UniProtKB/TrEMBL annotation, chain A:
Organism this protein belongs to: Schizothecium vesticola
InterPro entries: POLR3C_WHD, RNA_pol_III_RPC82-rel_HTH, RNA_pol_III_Rpc82_C, RPC3, WH-like_DNA-bd_sf, WH_DNA-bd_sf
Xref: PANTHER family: DNA-DIRECTED RNA POLYMERASE III SUBUNIT RPC3 (PTHR12949:SF0), RNA POLYMERASE III DNA DIRECTED -RELATED (PTHR12949)
Keyword Zinc: no
Species classification: Eukaryota, Fungi, Dikarya, Ascomycota, Pezizomycotina
UniProt GO molecular function: single-stranded DNA binding
Subunit structure: Component of the RNA polymerase III (Pol III) complex consisting of 17 subunits.
UniProt domain RNA polymerase III subunit RPC82-related helix-turn-helix: residue ranges: 9-66
UniProt-recorded name of the protein: DNA-directed RNA polymerase III subunit RPC3
Record region (Disordered): 265-300, 427-475
Gene3D superfamilies named in the record: Winged helix-like DNA-binding domain superfamily/Winged helix DNA-binding domain (1.10.10.10)
Domain DNA-directed RNA polymerase III subunit RPC3 winged-helix: 521-596
UniProtKB/TrEMBL annotation, chain B:
Family designation: Belongs to the eukaryotic RPC34/RPC39 RNA polymerase subunit family.
InterPro entries for this protein: RNA_pol_Rpc34, RNA_pol_Rpc34-like, WH-like_DNA-bd_sf, WH_DNA-bd_sf
Organism taxonomic ancestry: Eukaryota, Fungi, Dikarya, Ascomycota, Pezizomycotina
Annotated organism of origin: Schizothecium vesticola
GO biological process: transcription by RNA polymerase III
Annotated region (Disordered), positions in chain: 200-269
Protein name (record): DNA-directed RNA polymerase III subunit RPC6
Length: 682, 405
């Protein structure tokens, strides 16, 4: 993560919000000064070593620091990426709840509150809790872990917990942790977890040199070999955090459990994502309790000394899935969005991170973590909730006005990056121009001819009801599912690629690029209006253009156009280039070409987002200062929890108004984070 | 003397014969080379000297115009009326000016260019132009590309599209109202033809958990035989009452309308995407045909290229997207489920009544994101904003407004 001034400010504010001022100040100093040792820190912060040690301990506990010691001298470095991830706490918890049920969310939340934790500590903490719950079964749950301070970010997860949302036994806790580990949402802290990535790379490099190239790396071949060796070493280090997962997998419990569930049918774990995306209901999770007893016994007890923490990388993959589903819901409708959600979930099961590391992943030969493979139609069908009516969400049309040949086209290779010229020449943005031109004549003119051809192309799986519309409504379920998949792959955004008969995959790179453009468009449309958006999109499809050409395409008045372009140039959405006609470079004769630079616009938007988030949090602080007396009151132990009854009405009104504002501001920060995640992390 | 007269008479006959023959062999645009003229078979014995004489004489009469083409000199004929105009001019200069303007054709010519081309004094040019204008041979015109230049054109010509700016310009001004109206019509057409108007199964309830219902979404009435035309016409048009009674969503009592366009669709209608491979997405020729048939543009003829231009603008506006099915390039509405289902006629009526004027003309509300919602995203002094500065989070008026403090 590149740390700019605004990003640094934001990270410091987040830490302040969650863990208090002391760690926040140390963190801010570390960010601005770079890696420092204790003495330097003392100098920069004018704090005494005791304070510093306290602050550093907190930061280390929450994984917010990298540190390295050689011979007594320990240097600390800020881990800005993790600090930023704090903002996503609420989102991740929500995601875990919808995928794994409320109990797992509770475990995850506690893990977040306590930072990296030894399994035994977590078990012990829960043991106390379980005992007490048993002792005071009918009492309300006041014996929770210290309340998570960032109320707003957690949204409404604050509600009184029902007993069945609690962990009931340590065995259940163990099983939940196992499941989360299998999903890679929790990983293991190991010796290298606290080294900064740069250090790890350096160390791996020097080790490779020492072990394999004592005489230095020579020649092209040697260099390639060297890089491969380094990548290998790095991969080994990276996979260390997955050791627990591998252990569980080799144990075979996971697969056994899966088989069992397949027999039972419905279970919260396998259907969870669906809940969150398509309908947001928790009803299905009811089945959880019934199965509970079986699953717990099968999981091996975890090594109590193992230290676990939350794996944000994998969380991001799941958050990205949710985001894409949202995008599909927005463009194509909710049922299709649900189908897409299921597909993404299966597809990304083995995907550990959103962005591949060029150094590590390019060299790999597709064994692990390579771009997602593909999902077959049958796999999808097996994972669809039976209560979903797949016939919804797509329009109906008579059989003979649908070209199944076009719809079923198989694209084996990911789309090539579009060239400006291509788009400009034929004014069409579809990337598969040449392919579809081939069958132009035969298909379009003879509407009915292709009917016999269709089954051949689709394999035997797909059967069409003959002609009549009445029959058409009775498409069987595989066909309905297929309709959604085809719709997705035909979409302008290329959500899906039909990469083989009945096989489907997603090209994340180009798809996310399109989504980034869409977000940028939204911002441009709101700030510069429809006309501005039109101009930017013209430039994006056609490349550089002078004003006159732009005017002709956009059908806008010259004056308005000039004004709009200037406005957008100031806002940083478009750029201008001067091209002299001759050596004299006479300004009057020069050509002025407008163009858009997506990269710089995105960077700018990212910065604006950081700064806006910072402002939201600062405004919140201002509000807190303003309502100081009320907030002080609510902190009193005799008031806490019973604000409405105890406080005077006037005070309570002020308090609830403040709460509303706090909620609004936090919600906004999270909305901004959606944007940041898309621009930076996905 | 007699020989001369004889020659003259002979020349006159040859001239007429050559001129008529040339007229028979092509339009005014056609260029005749020397060989072409000989091959017309008018000049006896293909006598080149005689040909030169005849052509020279025709040129003097302004009946032939010499043009230097790529392969040498060539001629084209000019009709007698125009030629007469030339000969009726008082002097050589006026004739030259008229020739230059004539040459410029429908694009017209700038008076400064005339002056430079002929290397004449400005006053003289002015004089000639004045003379020509009073005679009604030429007229002044306006060019959209250079609105400030004084241009002249032959009076009997209509300025070319390049000069007038094509159909989108009215008196040299871009007619945005006209364009917007047409865009709206095209968009409505594409919207209704490229998406399927289905009912929304219970907006509040969970759509997925409902048992499948018959008749929730239905294009053609079950009794109607399915055919291209039926399916196409069923979409976007009024649905039969029986269709609606099948839905269990509360369909409000629809006032019977006199066969016209549906005034308002019941709430809970939604546009759905067509299945993949749908082959009747409207194409530009179809749209052009629609515009032509409805006769909205009664005194402007719009070609397919013009319609394409409008469709492209809609595409750039993000309202529609191109889709190619089997080589047929059609257009479909973007984000169909988010489109409003208020009919065109109803919207027009509302607008006349002054309702919804603040809404976008057509299309949906622009999508928003975190940045467009927070005050900072639209803050005019965002750059200046810092803690302790003149504009700071502590004294931000925009946030106060937003939070309604």
């Amino acid at each position: 993560m590149e740390v700019t001034q605004n990003a640094a400010e934001l990270c410091a504010l987040l830490i302040d919000e969650l863990y208090g001022e002391l760690p926040s100040r140390i963190f801010a100093v570390l960010l601005s000064r770079g890696r420092s040792n204790l003495a330097q820190l003392a100098q920069y912060t004018s704090m005494n070593p005791r304070q510093l040690r306290h602050g550093l301990a907190v930061l280390i506990q929450y994984n917010l620091l990298f540190h390295q010691s050689d011979g007594g001298n320990t240097v600390y470095e800020a881990n800005a990426a993790f600090a930023y991830n704090l903002i996503r706490t609420g989102k991740i918890l929500e995601m875990v709840e919808s995928s794994f049920g409320p109990v797992a969310k509770d475990v995850m939340q506690n893990l977040m509150i306590s930072g990296q934790t030894r399994v035994s500590d977590l078990l012990a903490a829960y043991q106390i809790k379980i005992d007490r719950t048993k002792a005071a079964a009918e009492q309300d749950m006041d014996i929770e872990f210290p309340e998570f301070k960032l109320n707003g970010v957690n949204g409404n997860y604050h509600e009184v917990k029902k007993p069945d949302h609690q962990v009931k036994s340590t065995a259940q806790l163990n099983s939940i942790i196992c499941r989360l580990v299998e999903a890679e949402l929790i990983d293991v802290v190991h010796s290298k977890s606290f080294q900064s990535p740069d250090d790890i790379v350096k160390e791996a490099e020097s080790q490779v040199v020492a072990n394999y190239f004592p005489n230095g790396v020579k020649g092209g071949k040697g260099k390639a070999e060297y890089e491969q060796k380094v990548a290998e070493a790095l991969r080994k280090i990276r996979s260390e955090s997955k050791s627990l997962k591998r252990k569980l997998e080799s144990n075979g419990a996971a697969s056994k459990r899966r088989k069992l569930f397949a027999g039972i049918g419905q279970n919260g774990a396998s259907n969870g994502t669906a809940n969150g995306t398509a309908n947001g209901s928790n009803g299905v999770n009811g089945a959880n309790g019934a199965n509970g007893a079986h699953e717990e016994e099968m999981d091996p007890a975890l090594d109590p000394k193992q230290v676990i923490r939350i794996n944000y990388e994998k969380c991001l993959v799941d958050l990205r899935n949710r985001r894409l589903v949202q995008f599909v819901c927005d463009t194509l409708g909710e049922t299709t969005g649900y189908v897409y959600g299921v597909l993404l979930r299966i597809l990304t099961k083995q995907l550990s991170r959103c962005q591949l590391d060029p150094r590590l992943d390019i060299a790999e030969d597709g064994n692990e973590n390579q771009g997602p493979a593909s999902v077959t139609s049958n796999e999808l069908l097996d994972n669809m909730k039976t209560s979903i009516d797949l016939s919804l969400g797509i329009g109906k049309a008579a059989k003979n006005i649908i070209s199944s040949r076009a719809a079923e086209k198989i694209r084996e290779n990911p789309p090539k990056p579009k060239l400006f010229i291509e788009a400009a020449v034929d004014g069409d943005a579809s990337a598969d121009e040449s392919e579809s031109d081939d069958d132009e004549s035969s298909d379009y003119d003879s509407d009915f001819e292709e009917q016999p051809a269709a089954p051949a192309a689709n394999g035997s799986k797909v059967k069409f009801a003959d002609g009549a519309a009445g029959k058409e409504q009775r498409m069987d379920r595989p066909m309905q599912l297929r309709q959604h998949l085809l719709l997705l792959s035909e979409s302008h955004q290329h959500f899906l690629r039909h990469c083989g008969t009945n096989e489907w995959t997603v090209d994340f790179g180009p798809l996310l690029q399109i989504q980034r453009e869409a977000e940028l468009d939204a911002v441009i449309e709101r700030t510069s209006g429809k006309d501005g958006l039109r101009l930017v999109r013209i430039l994006r499809t056609n490349g550089k253009m002078d004003e006159k050409a732009l005017q002709n395409i956009a059908l806008m008045r010259k004056g308005e156009l000039q004004q709009k372009m200037l406005e957008m140039q100031r806002a940083g959405f478009v750029q201008i280039q001067e091209v002299p006609r001759d050596n004299k470079a006479d300004v009057k004769k020069s050509l002025f070409l407008w163009y858009v630079d997506l990269e710089s616009s995105s960077t700018m938007m990212l910065e604006t987002s950081y700064k806006s988030m910072v402002r939201c949090l600062q405004v919140l602080e201002v509000l807190r200062q303003k309502e100081k007396d009320v907030l002080m009151l609510t902190k009193r132990t005799d008031v806490k929890g019973r604000e409405k009854d105890v406080m005077r009405k006037e005070y309570f009104d002020r308090y609830s108004r403040f709460q509303a504002h706090e909620k609004q501001l936090f919600a906004q920060v999270l909305r901004l984070d959606d944007l940041v995640a898309l621009l930076r992390d996905f | 003397m007699a020989g001369d007269d004889d020659d003259n008479a002979k020349l006159q006959i040859l001239k007429n014969a050559l001129y008529d023959e040339a007229r028979n062999h092509g339009s005014e645009e056609r260029l005749f080379t020397q060989k072409d003229l000989i091959d017309l078979g008018v000049i006896p014995d293909s006598n080149l000297l005689l040909l030169v004489k005849v052509v020279q004489s025709l040129c003097d009469d302004r009946l032939l115009v010499g043009v230097s083409s790529g392969s040498g000199i060539a001629w084209r004929w000019r009709n007698r009326e125009d030629a007469k105009k030339y000969t009726s001019l008082p002097n050589e200069e006026t004739m030259m000016v008229y020739a230059v303007i004539d040459e410029a054709g429908a694009d017209g010519i700038w008076n400064r260019t005339i002056k430079n081309k002929l290397n004449m004094h400005e006053n003289l040019v002015k004089q000639c132009i004045k003379h020509l204008e009073t005679k009604g041979y030429i007229a002044s015109m306006k060019n959209v590309e250079h609105p400030n230049k004084k241009m002249y054109i032959k009076a009997n010509l209509r300025p070319s599209d390049r000069a007038t700016g094509g159909p989108w310009f009215t008196e040299g001004e871009l007619d945005t109202a006209f364009i917007d109206q047409l865009k709206e019509i095209i968009f409505e057409y594409i919207k209704s033809k490229s998406a399927y108007l289905g009912s929304l199964p219970g907006q509040s309830a969970n759509p997925a958990l409902r048992p499948p219902r018959k008749g929730t979404i239905r294009g053609t009435a079950p009794s109607a035989p399915a055919s291209d035309a039926d399916a196409a016409s069923a979409r976007g048009t009024k649905r039969a009452a029986t269709d609606i009674s099948n839905d269990d969503s509360p369909a409000p009592a629809r006032a019977p309308e006199g066969g016209g366009a549906p005034a308002r669709r019941p709430p809970g209608k939604v546009y759905l995407p067509m299945p993949a491979g749908y082959r009747h997405y409207p194409t530009v020729p179809e749209i052009a045909q629609l515009i032509h048939d409805t006769g909205i543009t009664n005194n402007t003829t719009l070609g397919e290229a013009d319609i394409q231009q409008l469709v492209d603008v809609l595409r750039y506006d993000g309202l529609i997207e191109p889709i190619k099915v089997n080589g047929r390039r059609g257009y479909r509405v973007a984000r169909p489920t988010k489109q409003d289902t208020v009919s065109f006629a109803k919207r027009q009526k509302d607008r006349e009544a002054g309702i919804g004027l603040d809404l976008p003309m057509f299309g949906m509300e622009p999508p928003g994101n975190g940045l467009t919602e927070v005050p900072c995203g639209r803050c005019p002094v965002f750059e200046l904003c810092e803690e302790g500065g003149p504009v700071s989070p502590a004294n931000c008026v925009y946030f106060d407004q937003w939070l309604e403090i």
